Amino acid sequence: MSTPPSRHTPSLWQTYGQVFASRRIAAMLLLGFSSGLPLALTAGALQAWLTVEGIDLHTIGYFALVGLPYTFKFVWAPLLDRFEPRLLGRRRGWILVFQLAMALACLALAQLDPKTSIRFIATLSVLVAWLSASQDVVFDAYRADVLTPEERGAGAAVSVLGYRLAMLVSGGGSFILADTRLGWPGTYCVLGVMLLLLMGATVWSPRIERPAGARSGAGAELKGFVAMVAGGALVWWLASLLSRPVLAALEAGALGQLVAETLVMLLTGVGAVLVARKVGFPSFVGPWDAFFSRPHALAFLLLIVLYKLGDAFAASLSTSFLLRGVGFSQAEIGAINKGFGLLATIVGALLGGAWLSSRSLYQSLMLFGILQAFSNVGYWLLSVLPKSYLLMAGAIGIENLCGGLGTAAFVAFLMALTDRRFSAAQYALLSALAAIGRVYVGPVAGVVVEQQGWPTFFLLTVAAAVPGLLMLWWLRREVGALDAQRDRSAVLADAD
């Protein structure tokens, strides 16, 4: 049996050195930064702002639902592919529009007071999350379109670096700035101005043209999208109307209401997809059909949702825990949690990528999944032992390092599942499903902490990782088949 030809893997310095030799790679760094900057504005930074203003934990937990657009971005992703502004050519026009709108929304948020305008803050935060999720969809597609095959590895690494550096700025940097200089309104103004400046990076990025080929009719696309949204809205209204008397009869508490709302959302999604299929929404239905034609498609989707559930559960209230549960200051959290923690995540992702180059995908997913589950024990120790800066640094470093390892394997898994014919739409769908855990565990986390306390909560985050590991073990042969497919693709690429 012939052995596959060896592939040259550039060193880390060679990879990042290409930033200075290729405008396309440099653009990935800058646009990756733009993609990562808004995430903390509707997550950790927003959570800290509400916490220091004295907003109750129950309300803060529900603010995790602000991230819903990251879960449902696959719904409008086909429209972003089909319709584009005429300025700047393919992809970049949408990125520019989203950057401008996010900057204006951040500047508007800075004018509000959480104690008196909590509803307006929630509305603008959802808008920022929607714009950010839409920018992510277009940036992922732009990255795939603009990079040559030889540049894709370096481009992916550099865009992740830019994304993490942005999270360091909007996470750790914003905490320090808010605590020592400007407060949260001033900090949101600074971040809004940064988004305005990043519009220059979009204009400077290389131009790409729309490829030639048949395109679905605009009328059919718009008709399908409107029908899908209207059908989903109708299902949501009916399901919500019917659930109210049931909840009242059962005298359901906060957790029961959350379960009911989750079921309503699931019914809404199923109804919307059925309407889209019935009416016809070509750019939405095609990628779905291609994915569900593979064996065990539903099981793969469930694995995507469950794999990082424990990690997301622990992270959902980690900032509030460090502030209110342990008593650290915002500056301390910014320096250690958002600074050192993100650095550990970057190191973990790089180590995970190196491990993946010589190990199977299944082995990597299982090992890193176990590590990221047990890394939450550090937070449990913080909740039961006296306040300690060394213990906080150790717990945060280990948790983020293991989370980075898991993320490297998980992204490789998503890429292996993606059909190249529908890479933008399918990756949007799969990454949106991966965000479900991060979004929906927030309300559950708030209820658990209020009723059971922090120590029980962090033990439950370890248990929450078990279903994903069991699902991975059940799909071990299918994940192994993805590895074999990847190896065949590498051989064909070398042969070409």
UniProtKB/TrEMBL annotation:
<feature type="transmembrane region" description="Helical">
    <location>
        <begin position="297"/>
        <end position="323"/>
    </location>
</feature>
<feature type="transmembrane region" description="Helical">
    <location>
        <begin position="93"/>
        <end position="112"/>
    </location>
</feature>
<feature type="transmembrane region" description="Helical">
    <location>
        <begin position="254"/>
        <end position="276"/>
    </location>
</feature>
<keyword id="KW-0813">Transport</keyword>
<protein>
    <submittedName>
        <fullName>MFS transporter</fullName>
    </submittedName>
</protein>
<feature type="transmembrane region" description="Helical">
    <location>
        <begin position="427"/>
        <end position="448"/>
    </location>
</feature>
<dbReference type="Pfam" id="PF07690">
    <property type="entry name" value="MFS_1"/>
</dbReference>
<feature type="transmembrane region" description="Helical">
    <location>
        <begin position="184"/>
        <end position="204"/>
    </location>
</feature>
<feature type="transmembrane region" description="Helical">
    <location>
        <begin position="225"/>
        <end position="242"/>
    </location>
</feature>
<feature type="transmembrane region" description="Helical">
    <location>
        <begin position="25"/>
        <end position="50"/>
    </location>
</feature>
<feature type="transmembrane region" description="Helical">
    <location>
        <begin position="388"/>
        <end position="415"/>
    </location>
</feature>
<feature type="transmembrane region" description="Helical">
    <location>
        <begin position="454"/>
        <end position="475"/>
    </location>
</feature>
<keyword id="KW-0472">Membrane</keyword>
<feature type="transmembrane region" description="Helical">
    <location>
        <begin position="364"/>
        <end position="382"/>
    </location>
</feature>
<dbReference type="InterPro" id="IPR036259">
    <property type="entry name" value="MFS_trans_sf"/>
</dbReference>
<feature type="transmembrane region" description="Helical">
    <location>
        <begin position="154"/>
        <end position="178"/>
    </location>
</feature>
<dbReference type="GO" id="GO:0022857">
    <property type="term" value="F:transmembrane transporter activity"/>
</dbReference>
<dbReference type="InterPro" id="IPR004752">
    <property type="entry name" value="AmpG_permease/AT-1"/>
</dbReference>
<feature type="transmembrane region" description="Helical">
    <location>
        <begin position="118"/>
        <end position="142"/>
    </location>
</feature>
<dbReference type="GO" id="GO:0016020">
    <property type="term" value="C:membrane"/>
</dbReference>
<feature type="transmembrane region" description="Helical">
    <location>
        <begin position="62"/>
        <end position="81"/>
    </location>
</feature>
<keyword id="KW-0812">Transmembrane</keyword>
<keyword id="KW-1133">Transmembrane helix</keyword>
<dbReference type="InterPro" id="IPR011701">
    <property type="entry name" value="MFS"/>
</dbReference>
<feature type="transmembrane region" description="Helical">
    <location>
        <begin position="335"/>
        <end position="357"/>
    </location>
</feature>
